[in-house]
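Suppose a classmate hands you a notebook page containing two proteins, each written out with its sequence and a corresponding row of structure tokens. How would you begin to make sense of it? This section walks through that situation. The first entry is reproduced here exactly as it would appear on such a page.
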Amino acid sequence: MYSTSWLRSGSLLLLVLCLALLGCTGKKERAKVKGRVKFFDKYLTCGTVTFYSKDGKDTGSGNIDADGNYEVSDAPVGDTLITVVTPEKKKMMGQGAGGPMGMPQGDFAKKTAMKDMAGSKAAIDPNKIVEVPEKYATTEKSGLTFTVKKGENEHNITLSP
């Protein structure tokens, strides 16, 4: 009788450990989000849209094309915070210091955007850039949120001053 009880306890413990390991793989769910970004009535012509999980541990980003379209193929599923970063015209035209392609330096969101935009093969005409307020470059100030669901999502973003 003692050995049967021990066997049941051991089996139960093994089952619990297996379930815990399966549930704690560390891989978060990802989904696709696409849409268009505009500032007032003008669609952005370049930049980066980044989705951050509420805890800030997971991100997914995508470039904005010349027509204002963006696609993020690896956005974290759940409630997210969003940043939108565009290069600064004056820095791209050599009128100021800054990072690659005139991007402002500073926080993680800006550095992520610069890295993503640096991989873009399309040349950016500084005269066609639709600049947005710097507040949209940080999760603390952007005020942009979206709940990403499994599968494909569509989310158009309209920015204001």
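The notebook's second entry, a different protein, reads as follows.
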Amino acid sequence: MDSDHMAIATRPRQVEWHCDRLGSAQQQPRAAAPSPATMRAATLIWTAQTVAVSGTLLVVVCARLKTCKDNYAFLAEKMEDSFYWWELLLLLRKLLIMAARMLNTSSPSRGWFLSSLVIVFSLWAHSYARPYEDPWVDAAAALSLWTGDD
């Protein structure tokens, strides 16, 4: 093989071959990659859908817990009575942090930012609600969120 054929063989393909019904092959240009704006929009839509589905599941599970509260009482022994569902938020927080870090492996800084955003929101929610019966446990949980020892 001479150098011209070698250069052609190693070049990346810019066209794809498609066969019509009669079996004759035709070249068609490859579809363009999505633009960054399209990728951002798709990411925002995916995030909104994930939050909507998680919120719906949280509401459904909370409604179910109201009917069978006694079965899951061990999860809320240290919580105030009105915050028996707070453990679900703790699990959701851990899930969101894990997803933010795992789904952003190509951009670690974005993963850290999203994880930090989840922790800041959790700290705000905890400071507002103070769900534990013992104020020292509330303070320890807030300090744990503040230092990032989640």
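A careful reader of the second entry would note: The mean pLDDT is 75.
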